[in-house]
Please model this.
Amino acid sequence: MTRILTGRTDEILQRVAAFEGDELAARELDIPVADKAGKHWFVAVGESGETLGFCSAVDEGERVGFWTFYVPPSSRGTGVGRELWLARLDAYAGRELYAYCSRDSWPFYERSGFEVVVEDYETRDHGKVWWAEVRRPA
Ligand SMILES: CC(C)(COP(=O)(O)OP(=O)(O)OC[C@H]1O[C@@H](n2cnc3c(N)ncnc32)[C@H](O)[C@@H]1OP(=O)(O)O)[C@@H](O)C(=O)NCCC(=O)NCCS
Model:
């Protein structure tokens, strides 16, 4: 069974920090995993105590930013992303939400009623990357 840890405890920050040097995570997320912005974390932990994935949110008062939604390839497609997504969405029910989302995560945003504000492609070392600024009103 998967447990979801939330907040900014030492354990949570350590689990997230373990991904800081992960090149794939940095490339796929397109932002540093590093905990620099006072993020509130949601971390999925597997039966053996392994970190299965994480996402974060920053409460800016007027609105809430969704950041750092990541599940390593070995755990993808098993429902971990869904659990993390729903835990975070539930925690900020009724709030205005925004994010910069990737192709992989857009289906989550779309199905939860987000709309695209800006859609673009940016060139990175590994090619063109689609991203979109998305929002959902309160
Ligand atoms: C995006 C990412 C975190 C998804 O993780 P994942 O573990 O593969 O996701 P899951 O297997 O849980 O996702 C699919 C499930 O979520 C469900 N789902 C999707 N959107 C949903 C929503 N809005 N509400 C509820 N469920 C939803 C799907 O129906 C599916 O469930 P099913 O298998 O029962 O049909 C992962 O692909 C990833 O890390 N990608 C690279 C990094 C990245 O692009 N991150 C986003 C940066 S913005």
